[in-house]
Structure formats: structure tokens, C-alpha cells
Amino acid sequence: MSSPRPTPYRSALAAAIAVVAGMAATLLAVSSPASAAPGCSVSYSAPSQWSGGFTANVAVTNVGDAVDGWSLTWSFDAGQQVTQAWNAEVSQSGSQVTARNVTYNPSIPAGGKVEFGFNGTSDGTTNPNPTAFSLNGTLCTGAPVPTTTPTSPTTTTPTTTTSGPPPTGSLPSSFRWSSSGPLIGPKPDSAHPNVAVKDTSVIYHGGKYHVFASTYTDGYNLMYTSFTDWSQASAAPQYYLDRSPLGRGYRAAPQVFYFAPQRLWYLVYQTGAGGSYSTTSDINRPETWSAPKNFYGSMPQIVRDNIGNGYWVDFWTVCDTAKCYLFSSDDNGHLYRSETTLASFPNGFTNTVIAMRDANRNRLFEASNVYKIAGKSQYLLLVEAIGTDGRRYFRSWTAPAVAGPWTALADSESNPFARANNVTFPGGAWTRDISHGEMVRSNPDQTMEISPCKLSYLYQGMDPNASGDYNHLPWRLGLLTQTNSNC
What we know:
Strand order of the largest sheet: 5-9-2-1-12
Shape: globular
Mean pLDDT: 87
Low-confidence stretches: 1-37, 143-156, 159-164
Radius of gyration: 27 Å
Number of strands: 34
């Protein structure tokens, strides 16, 4: 039913009422600004924190008129500095921070919300939330809403917090290690009569160690296990990821990390298509890993030109404040690096280059790791080599940036990063190979940041008397603990 048209008298009366109401609202605003209707409220949280850094999430709810083009400002009172952002352009001058819309999210309708996030640095001792925000120059009188990160065992957002100042130590020029015995071996079942567990990735998150590894029967598969203490590792159940949407087929050499801009866990691994990945929102639920997607449409030409009779293997991701990088090896003396923007990840990997090469293929073989050293403008590169005795070991280099240039750190058989000759075995020398593994990380995100202090490395080893086809060798996982830390 249509409404009747107003008479002139009714129109005049309505206008007069509107004027009076406007004057009253103005007087009320002047006399009692705290009672004015809020134009926005802000939810701010820092769910992932570590020594010297943090990830923050911001949600702005518009409870006033629609906004087309927005700018949110606040102050950091404890020296925090924004280093990278997503879903907003963030700048900082002193303690004052300004976040502006990007091209795809300029509008916030009445009652609508916009969300963005960023990584930042802190002094390692305190990281208080901002206490006030302004939207387009107007104070958000809806008070900032702190978000409490869930602490249940199934929380999906990293919450690791390290107290104390940033690490002040440095990497030594030579390393010494003590090794455990074999901690994790195969747990065969009727569908997985495995002979090996190898190619591991590990993080410590949510009070547990999360371990991913390759297994081998007559083909490669991936498995997941978790436990709260290394003494529980051998007894912990193993979940075979072919039972998840990640599925069956050739999957090997995993790397796990949390990609903070998307709030997703990534599992990177090799397949017949080269580097592939799966995602989940909850690392505690291995059954939720998604079906594989590929990083590349085809093998880059530079790899084709140099691979010889090698294999394209062992994909490793690390991101800085602007880009993500994907490393890989070819078992033929070449280490490759591709790149994409942080905003485009996991898509758009191009500009594949040879990051390092060696005329002796055994000296630069496979299984690279790249880490950011906390508190320093320094990266650490590890690459597995095959020694003159046929045994596996790791060489190491450092650089001021992911793209290099790389300078030798401990890179020889006589001075290796990790080899049987710089490792002690209190329980007996169960292996002479120190092979494909990963540093134990407590910061799970895409920066691959580690402390230079008291390193731990989970690796694969095997009975020195074992022989035969490589794929059927009885690999097991053991833990190296650094014994000559400079911290």
C-alpha cells in the first residue's frame, strides 16, 4: 500500500520538528560529547607474538553513515613499528600509525566491517594494544574491543609468546651438537607397510611439537604426529595424510608454516608436478588438509636447462616484508629461487634464478632450509651434501637478505654445519648420516624466524650398516641439540 502524500501543513511541521531536533542534538553533542552516538568500533588483537615481533589483526565496524574511502589512525606507545601489512596501506611516523584502504576495499557501509592485518616489531618485553582509534579523523567512541585468543587444544591461531629481550647472541663459525637416539620410526598398518620415516618438518606451537614427514612403502606418502615432549615421540600415533583431502599419490618432503596474512597453515611438498601445497585453518586436525594445488604451471625453463639427469625436489618457502620466495634443488649442483609478492602468495611465482651452484653436484645436493635470524638482518641457508665418504651432511651460509649474497659459514666436511664428525652420540652412534630435516621452530609464521641461541635440528639418520635401494633405506628421525651456543 502506498503512503499518502503530506499536506503543506504537515511538511512545514515536519521541517520545524527536524530543525528543533537538529538544534537539540547539536546542544547535546556540545554539552556531553561522551554520549554522542559512536561512528565506529575497533577490534584489535595480536594473536601471534614472539621475541621482538608480532602479528596484529584489526576489524573496523562502521556504526555511522556509509564511508567511501577510509583512514584509520592510532598511536603505539611502546615503540612498536609496523613492518608489513595486508588489506590496507599502513604507514608510520614516530608513534603515529595510519592505515588506509586499498583499491578493493574503499567502502564501509553503515553497519559494515572492514578487516586488515600487519606484522610489527616490539622491544620483546611489552606490546600493549592501542587505546584509541580514529576513522577519517573522528574518534571511534565505540571502545576498542580486545580479542581473546582461544587457549583450547584446537585453537587455530598461533599464540606463541616469548618474554624477555631479543636474542643478543650470534651464530658461531663452527658448530657442535649432541644427538638423541632414533625418536620416530615407521608405524606400519595394513594400508601403509612403511619401511622409513624421513624428510621432516617440525614446529613447536600450542604446547606441542607438530611433526610432518615422508613415509615410504612402495611409494611416498606424508604423515603427521604430535606430542608435548620428545620422550613421547616414539609412542605418539601417526596420521597418514592420504586419509585427508590431500589424498593419495606421490607426496614427499613437507614443510609446514602459518601464513599470517591469510590466517592459514600451509603444507608445502613435492609431487610429480613439482612444488605443491595444501592448507588448513587448524594444524591440530590433520584430516582437514586441502587437496593439492601447484605453485608452477610447468617446470621453469632455467630448471630444464640445468637439471641434467637430476630430479626437481625439496621445495622451501620463506617470506620477508615484501615478497615470498620458493627454493628448490635439482640433485645436480643447483639451488633455485623463485619469487612472488606477499600479497599474491601462493600464486605468481616467477623470476626463477639459480641462487647457488657447485660444479660438484654432491656438494650442493638437496634439502635446503632458509631461516631469518631473530634480532638481526641476517638469513641462514642450509643445504644437504654428500660427503667424500658417501655420507650425508649439511653445509651453511649467511646473507643480509633472502636474495643473498651468501657467504660461507660452516660449509666444508672438516667444518660442517652438521655432520657425524661434529656430533656426539651419548646413547651410541646409531647413524653416520645427518640428512634431510629442519630446525625446531617456535615462531611458526612465514618469516621462518629462529633464535641464534641453542639450536635444535630434527633430522633423518639410519643404521650405518644398511644398504640397498635409496628409497627402501631404514631412515628414522633423531634430534640434534647445539652444545656450543654463543648465547
